UniProtKB/TrEMBL annotation:
InterPro entries in the cross-refs: AKR, AKR_Detox_Biosynth, Aldo/ket_reductase_CS, NAD(P)_OxRdtase_dom_sf, NADP_OxRdtase_dom
Name of this protein: Aldo/keto reductase
A GO MF label: oxidoreductase activity
Superkingdom classification of source: Bacteria
Domain annotation NADP-dependent oxidoreductase: ranges: 26-294
GO CC annotation terms, alphabetical: cytosol
Gene3D superfamilies registered for this protein in UniProt: NADP-dependent oxidoreductase domain
Amino acid sequence: MNANQTLPAPAKMRRLGNSEIEVSGIAWGMWRLAENGRTAADAAKLVHSALDAGINFLDTADIYGFNGESGFGDAEALLGEVLAAEPALRARMVLASKGGIIPPLPYDQSAAYLSSALDASLKRLQAETIDLYQIHRPDILAHPQEVAKTLDDAVKAGKIRTIGVSNFTIHQIAALNQFLGHKLVATQPEISPLRITCFENGELDQAMMMGLTPLAWSPLGGGRLANPDSERDNAVAAELDRVAGEQGVSRSVAAYSWLMAHPAGIIPIVGSQQPERIAEAVEAYKVRWSRQDWYAVLVAARGERLP
C-alpha cells in the first residue's frame, strides 16, 4: 500500500472484545442526558435517534448527571424511564454503564460498594442485565483480585454480561485481567485528534494484543475541535477540514472517522444530545483515509515531525 491508497473502511458492526455481542462501530454517550430539565419524552427521542441511525451501543454511568452537589444517577434513571415506557427498546440496544466513583469520596471498588453500586444502577435503569459494566476509574486502594471476584460474581449472577474498564493504565488493565475469570472485553480511555497519548504509550497496542475493544470518550476533544484556540489545535482542525471538505462531511465526522481508521477498531462515543448530530455521526463510515492524510493529522497533533 502506498501513501495515497486508502485504509480499510471501518466496520459498521463488530464484536465487543472476544464476546458474542455485536456492537455498532459508533456509540452514543449519555454524560449530559439529564441536563437542561430533559424529560423522559425528550430522552426517548434521543434514544430513537441513535437506534434509528444504526447506533446500538449506548453508554452511560452512575455518576452522569452529578453537578458537584446533586444529580448522581440521574442519567441512568432517565434512561430507565425511557425503557420502562418502551420495553421493546431494550432488545435493540447494547447497554453499557459504569460505576466505582462516589462523590465526595473519589473512588471505591471495595466488594461491598461495587456490588451495591451495580445493584443501584440496575434499579435506576429498570433493567435485569447490563451488557457491558465498566469500572469507571481505578481505585488504587482496591486489590484487583477483590475487584475481579466482585465482577465475576456479578456475571455469574446474570447482572452483567461482560466487563470493561475506563481510564485504566496498561498495568492496571493487566493486573485486573489476570484475576478475572470472565476476561475484559473493552477499555475506555480519552482519545481524540487532540489527545493522542494512547497511540504512543502502549494502550492501543495492549488492546489489540488482548482483544479489547477501545471506546473513545471525548472524541472531539471536549469541544475544543469545534472551537480551536491554540496554534496546535488549529493545525489539527485544518488537517481534518481538508479531508472533510474533500469528502463532503463535517469536521466532527472527519474526527470520528480518523479514530475509526486505526487497526485497534476504536469506537468513538458521540456525546451530542442533539438528534441531528447523533444521526450525522454515522457518516463517518463512508470517510476513507489515506496513510498520508491520517499521519498528517497525527503530525499536527504531535506538534513536531515524526522521527
